[in-house]
Amino acid sequence: MFKDRVANIQKMVAGMGKFLRTQQSSLIGAAEVVAKLDDSQTLSTLHRSVESVKGITQTYDDSFWNVVEALSEAEGLVTFLTDVLADEDVRHFTASAEAFGCDTYMATAPQVTALISVHTFLKPLLVEGLHKNLESFLSSIWKRYSETMNQGDGVPERSLFNIINECTHNLSKLQRFVDTLSDRGAAEREKIKSIMNPVNEAAITFNFSTLEQTSTFTVTVKVRGVEVALNEQQVFDLRSRAYLLANAEEGEAKESMHGFRSIVERIEEVKETMNDIAHSGHIGSFLHNRSKSSGVNIQGLDSLKADLMTELCVWKFAITNARLNHPILQTLTNKQLVLMYVGLSNH
């Protein structure tokens, strides 16, 4: 327990030091001595340091130290709240989340509610300026914690520890939600519209290999005359953005958002089929890095998927018969089959 408290103190300094006027204090120094524990320390120094840390740790209860532990792991969350939401009124976020709806790529209404609670708890601490030292900062957190527990102050019937951890775990989803809600996603909206505009001739390129057992895709499109290549994660992020924007747009823009989501669903289906081929042991044209391209349209993607499914079925039939006729092949995994074929081909 004592060792955990020391670790929490050091993480607080590392993650939230920007809120301190100085990172030099008796508590920080004592924690460093206790954590270091080497032969250069005298027993007297170690004893004073232990007593100093113990004095602070015993000042506050375990529930508070749990909150400190959560904050010590929440540097990204605290930075987001400070840089983006410090002066924002976020109380309407829950209604917006419920109105937008959600999917597995977006923050849910309960997660947004958790963010509001953490914002309510931390906002007074984040806007009151630098604290004299860590001891002063802990005292301010304790004061705010006590006020929150006594008044409810926007915190639901869950511990602050759990709420902060939930926000930390779902930070990327929460950032995406806030960006879209505040229209910081204007560039992403433009990318989606550009991809869905036939004039821009956006293309999807799939790459896969049975030797490497990999399958990936990229989407290329011209945005304001400049060709932009989007990797898988960027496309999935845009899909999440489109989910929210579809509820906020009207007319053609709304159709573009819905259409883009449908396109990404088809892309995932094609990629899944390619992944099956990549792990099938195919030793034909799919052996080395193979590319397949399609335009951004449902018909083209469905046609590509059908062609790949045919290739996969033909191969599975062939390799099943080969293993029945040559039992030795039954001892080889698909990966080993490919490696053996490559090895024999090179000699």
Q: What does the secondary structure layout of this molecule look like, with pairings?
A:
Layout (H helix, E strand, L loop, with lengths): L1 H15 L9 H11 L6 H15 L4 H11 L2 H9 L9 H8 L8 H19 L6 H18 L8 H10 L1 H11 L4 H11 L6 E7 L4 E10 L2 E5 L1 H14 L5 H28 L11 E6 L2 H28 L8 H12 L2
Antiparallel strand pairs: 1-2, 1-4, 2-3
How would you describe this structure to a colleague?
By secondary structure, this protein is α+β, with helices and mostly antiparallel strands. The protein contains 15 helices and 4 strands. A hairpin with a 4-residue loop joins strand 1 and strand 2 (214-223). The model has no long low-confidence stretch (mean pLDDT 77).
What would the principal axes of the Cα set say about the shape? elongated
Number of β-strand runs: 4
Q: Overall mean pLDDT score? A: 77
Biggest sheet statistics: 4 strands, antiparallel
Low-pLDDT stretches: none
Task: Tell me the β content.
Answer: 5-15%
SSE pattern: HHHHHHHHHHHEEEHHEHH
Estimated radius of gyration: 28 Å
Sheet/helix structural class:
alpha+beta
Cross-sheet strand order for the largest sheet: 3-2-1-4
Question: Span between N and C termini?
Answer: 63 Å
- Give me the number of helical elements: 15
Helix content: 55-70%
